[in-house]
Amino acid sequence: MDKLIVQGDADLKGSINISGSKNSSLPILAATLLTEEPCIVRNVPDVSDTNYLIQIMNALGGHVERSSGTVRTEAKGIQHEAPYDLVRKMRASICVMGPLLGRLGRAKVSLPGGCVIGDRPIDLHLKGFEALGAEITMDGGDINVEAPNGLTGAHINLRGKHGPTVLGTDNVMMAAVLAKGTTVIESAACEPEVYDLAEFLNLMGAKISGHGTRTITIEGVEKLHGVDHRVIPDRIEAATFMVAGIMASKEGITLKRVCREHLKVAEDMLVSAGHCVEFNEEGTQVFVKKGDAPKGCEIITSPYPGFPTDMQAQFTAMLALTPGISIIEDTIFPQRFMQCSELKRMGANIEVDGGRAVVHGVEKLSGAPVMASDLRASAALVLAGLTASGETEISRLYHIDRGYENIDEKLEQLGAVVKRVIE
Ligand code: EPU
After folding, report:
1. pTM for this model (two decimals)
2. 324-333 burial: b if 16+ Cβ within 10 Å, else e
């Protein structure tokens, strides 16, 4: 298992390019299973999650090839069973279910197991498939979804107790594009990644409207065709490096290939905490620099356009070093505070209680051996390590490799001293 050794007291400088969005690429790649024609998906980050999905798609018969950021698919003859050995490696594998059901009328995928960031049920995905006319059975840890007579459009409300579901909306939308008649999804997720998927499906010939709002309407079509599409920039990677620039740079850093519209909440939060955030006119480049008088703030995660749960851990790391008291509440994954116990080992003063963290900013953290527990928590530890005194050794690096493309190279490009130790 690889480790990352991060040298503290870093002073980041210069610029880097932000990669394509992991959470857009995953459902978009899965959506190519809806057509037998060749598709090209560009700007796909080379991270282990996209690579797992490519393996699953190849096992399904999707003929997927990656050449750097460009992925080519040709899913001529596909089968409906996703192999457990691959599916168990990544919860998001569930996103092949909608396209398999839509195209073949059946899908068999293992039920995802527990997850460290919280209980992650898929009841809403299944509720949507059932509403479209599919029958669901469970057998030996697998979910079988079958619609021998095809799917029929329906009115579906996908609201769960923590709000809308991103992959649930994706899955139902992908199943519904080839259904007979019209489907209306109420309480749909309106994250930019869901919008990007809907745009991709429309390019393929689907008839989707209302994406980007809470009500999505899908008029079923007979067939979809091949397309060439570039996925949106990764707003979570961008926000992570925005926080890095604020925590560990004297003169500030620049991030290129970003989308300002998707980063509005990160921008607002950083500005309200007293920092400098300047976008270019096109909104494709951002310069970030620590402010002269940073102050604590209150963050409550919520669905888009609210503050994303996927940025919470990184902002917690920043607030651990911001004077004053900050309050952080995660309403989407209330247990997602694993970074806090590791940050405390580095000297942070954080109390976590029932989905809420109270952070008393300290002046300095000290490097320590720490353990990554999930993707965004690991990113928070890297950020903390950059600014701590001495060395921070982050073990279980595979968590970060799931979603940050070449993180060590990008940090080195900004002047950080990091070393990957392969064990
Ligand atoms: N939920 C249900 N029932 C369901 C589905 C979800 O109750 O059937 C609940 C979840 O337990 C959670 C809330 O609804 O409390 C939202 O979960 P959602 O379904 O939106 O999560 P997801 O689609 O499985 C995606 C991202 C996550 C991100 C969440 C929330 C992908 C591949 N993953 O997951 O990203 O945290 O949306 O925005 O898009 C990450 O990138 O680090 C990551 C975990």
Report:
1. 0.98
2. eebebbbbbb
